[in-house]
Amino acid sequence: MRPLFFLFSSLALSGLTISAPTQNFWYETITHNGISPFISGGNSWTVFRNVKDYGAKGDGVTDDSAAIQAAINAGGKGSGGNGFGTTGAPAVVYFPSGTYAMKSSIQSYVDTVIMGNPINRPTLKALSSFSDSTIIYGKDPGFDATINFYQGIKNLIIDSTAVSNNTAITLLDWSVSQATQLTNVLFNMPDYSLHTGVSTPEGGSGTYMGDLAFVGGKYGINLNNQQYSFKNISFTGCNTGVYITHAFSLVMQGMNFVNCGTGVDGTNGGTGNVGSIVLLDSSASSVGTVINTKSESGADDSIVIENLSSSNSGPTVKAGGSSILSGSVTNRWVYGNTYSAINSPKHSAGVTYTYARPSALLSGKNYFTMPPPTYQDQTNVVNIKSVSGLTVHGDGVTDDTANINTILANNAGKAVVFFPAGTYLVSNTIHVPVGTRIIGEVWSAISATGNNFKSASAPRPMVQVGNPGDVGIAQISDMLFTVADVLPGCILVEVNMAGSSPGAVGFWNSHFRVGGAAGSKAETSCTDPTNPCKAAFMLIHLTATSSAYIEDMWGWTADHDLDANNGMHISTGRGILVQATKATWLVGTAFEHNTLYQYSFSKAQNVFVGMQQSETPYWQGIGSSQLAPAPWTANTTYDDPSFSNCAATDANCRMAWFLNIDGGSNMEVYGSSFWTFFNYDGNCVGSGGSCQSNAVHIVGTPTSTRFWNLNTKSQINMVIDGGAVGATQSANSGSWGGVIAGYLPHA
Ligand SMILES: *[C@@H]1O[C@H](CO)[C@@H](O)[C@H](O)[C@H]1NC(C)=O
Ligand SMILES: *[C@@H]1O[C@H](CO)[C@@H](O)[C@H](O)[C@H]1NC(C)=O
Ligand SMILES: *[C@@H]1O[C@H](CO)[C@@H](O)[C@H](O)[C@H]1NC(C)=O
Ligand SMILES: CC(=O)N[C@H]1CO[C@H](CO)[C@@H](O)[C@@H]1O
């Protein structure tokens, strides 16, 4: 056989330049017929914007900043929704492979995804003459950070190596919140520079970022945010990997620190500024200090470390300037308040636990994780709006149920099914068969309508992933599940299928929204605070036979209107119900404003939770005419909590559980972030400053079930356990209210 070496050298000698054949990325070449159904002229709205069509050269020399901004702004898109609301102007600003030189910054807005070709990620390169302090402003300046939703950045390299190392430049300002995705990005900075990779100076209520790499710089990530899940991030040669300006609850999974001065710096600010840190399945090599923290006062600054491999590094944990832990952690190391029995907090400045992890959740010794699928190796992708003979509209008006079902059935095991941006109205269940791969675009919506979903006593799924007992593949990315009407009998998603391997059944960057946006009667007809309308039965149900990996999911019942100014008083019955037993991974999830609970794990087994963030409905609590379970009736078929622990008129008690656990086993819950801000009367004055009586409910004696860094705000009891008080916020003060490093009575 002719050696490859010979082939290359002869080509070089003949003066030809060769480049590796680049496979086309399906998304770059597929028909782009996404629309924005609910704005005027929206059927011809341009969703896909290839920056080269707007004049970008990608030649590494020409300043492409203005062309990139033109692609973002096309169609009149601009700050604060610019008349289109938050959801009206979906845009994908797409970069083919190449190097895009920039002299000035670009500004992104809500409902925008900036993405490159993942096969050969394009580089956005700041020139040495770069004139601004930030390369990409990801936060829409027209909205507060905490309502900067629906934004994405993926498959890029952002490069500041040409900028002077003495310039304090930031590569990405990402002061954003839920339903955002930052993934598969390399932040390339000079060594020994003052550069910062990602910063969140204006705060935010973030949920998830992952599959990122930071090289060089002063800070990889400078975090100022309520809470976050970080997954699979490497920091190489950063002076500090993660600098915490402020955060209450941070779960870091799969961090890899190499040649950094400090891995995680949590020394900033006083009590309550850095609430809690979890570090799982990570490594540190040639790092000065892995975690630097304050000396702990009360329960604040809680730290949980599991399976950290440290080599050639200084202290593993330094607190108040002294080393309190060195070397690798092969078990679980905990700094903070722990409970081995109910109502008996103990403070520990470092204790090791040896509980084994549930093996069903592991890949090797680590918890299983996987990056969001791009399907970059696939050439067989079907655009659901371009199948001849089976017209699908995605126009928010036409019922697409039958043809979506036919196309999914025809393509199972054969092709990836692409849903262009739009709203796909369905009047009956969409069946997702074994072998399905679905990918959307700027959160393509599947939206329920009609009488099939109206009965609370006969609820029906809108999207049903497999039948009970099915095993195989069903992957769903970049989609939104919503309701077009007030539908008390709608379960938005039901998962019955188990993955044939971990991640074979999964959801990435897929979210729920009930009300709060154009295209739903729940936006315009659920405005009476004394009568919140039952707009959906449940957001997502992982049934007993299912096994799914879920990463980056926000289950939101709207508390405000994203596209207009209607008051939102909506009662979705339930958030996420997990009855699955085989294995369930919830990486970076948030469920908010659902009525009976945000999360319920009933007879569930083998559940991993890596950061969960929640809030109760703002119309609940003292002053409300609706005391949970009202306006719903508890139904034992769904193992609904009955609130029988509360007196009939106790409005502060009859509020949604953040986390309801009924029996089950092998659950590992990291980084719970349970916040209450209001009750019906406003600022919780009637209850002496506490907005809610209880956060977590445990019944049915679960086994091998552990809670790590459980955080609450403005609640009295952090845990009600077997009918008794398990833990109070006042005994664990710190973080935004209370934090428990290890709640282990069921361990
Ligand atoms: C920039 O790099 C030079 C050369 O490595 C170094 O002397 C200088 O201290 C660096 N500046 C900063 C701010 O680190
Ligand atoms: C981690 O993220 C990188 C992208 O930065 C990706 O290439 C790699 O496959 C991911 N690793 C795992 C274990 O998911
Ligand atoms: C409880 O749910 C089951 C199953 O969906 C349903 O058949 C029954 O009618 C519901 N009960 C009530 C009281 O709504
Ligand atoms: C807590 C934990 O994850 N422990 C694991 C760390 O890794 C070793 C193997 O190196 C496993 O045996 C432990 O179970």
UniProtKB/TrEMBL annotation:
Upper classification of the organism: Eukaryota, Fungi, Fungi incertae sedis, Mucoromycota, Mucoromycotina
Entry-linked InterPro entries: Pectin_lyas_fold, Pectin_lyase_fold/virulence, QRT3-like, RHGA/B-epi-like_pectate_lyase
GO MF, any single term: polygalacturonase activity
Matches recorded under Pfam families: Pect-lyase_RHGA_epim
Name assigned to this protein: Rhamnogalacturonase A/B/Epimerase-like pectate lyase domain-containing protein
Alphabetical UniProt keywords: Signal
Residue ranges occupied by any Rhamnogalacturonase A/B/Epimerase-like pectate lyase domain in the UniProt entry: 48-265, 390-453
Keyword Signal: yes
Signal peptide: 1-19
